[in-house]
Amino acid sequence: MKNLFEKLIGSKKRYNDYKAEKEQLPQNYKDALHALEQYMWNFAKGENFMEVLENSLQLFKESSIEQLPLQDIMGNDPVEFANAIMAQYPEELWFIKSQEKLRLDIERLNK
Hints:
Blueprint: H1 4-9, H2 12-23, H3 27-41, H4 49-65, H5 70-74, H6 78-87, H7 94-109
Helix pairs in contact: 2-4, 3-4
InterPro entries: UCP029876 (IPR008316)
Pfam family, one: DUF1048
Protein name: DUF1048 domain-containing protein
């Protein structure tokens, strides 16, 4: 039986590659991505959560090359930014599935 870590990320090599690439970011981008990652881990559910992390890393890598300020990347509300990213991956995050269930339950009640 896979441990929880392997269930969430799949291959340890893939996760180690992600961490190594993250380390190459300028410090402020690395710190922002780390904070984003820590927040998103709270909602991870599926084996493909690495896709969420890798796509976030790619965004930060490209933004660092263009030297975009963090506020230009994340806007004024980092929680809103993180939630927008996670909304793209409903199968990988338990809270999005829960949100959809609540919406459907209330919608059925309103009919």
